[in-house]
Amino acid sequence: MFSSLFSFSEDSPFYILDWYQRRLDDGIPEHLIGFGDCPFGSTYYFDYSVLTNNEPRIINIGELWEEIAEEGQTAAIGYEPIEVVDNFESFLKSLTSLGDD
């Protein structure tokens, strides 16, 4: 289930550049570029490690977190990608509104 795209508005809590920096700080690999989220907290990514016809696949990841007690910070310790579709066009075609059957 897809919720929303990240925002280009600097005032948004989902501002794409802030989100991108947090992703780097949390240790998510650089080949994953997030573009949106779902209501359950996971993120949708372009995965540039797997290309089909020069297009990245779309994956969904719910990050795994580990507490670093002495610093009081969290960091991503791993992830398991769930392939959604082979490309962004297929992703867009798969979207339906909540009222659709």
UniProtKB/TrEMBL annotation:
Gene3D superfamilies: SMI1/KNR4-like
Top-level taxonomic group: Bacteria
Protein name (record): Knr4/Smi1-like domain-containing protein
Native source organism of the sequence: Paenibacillus phyllosphaerae
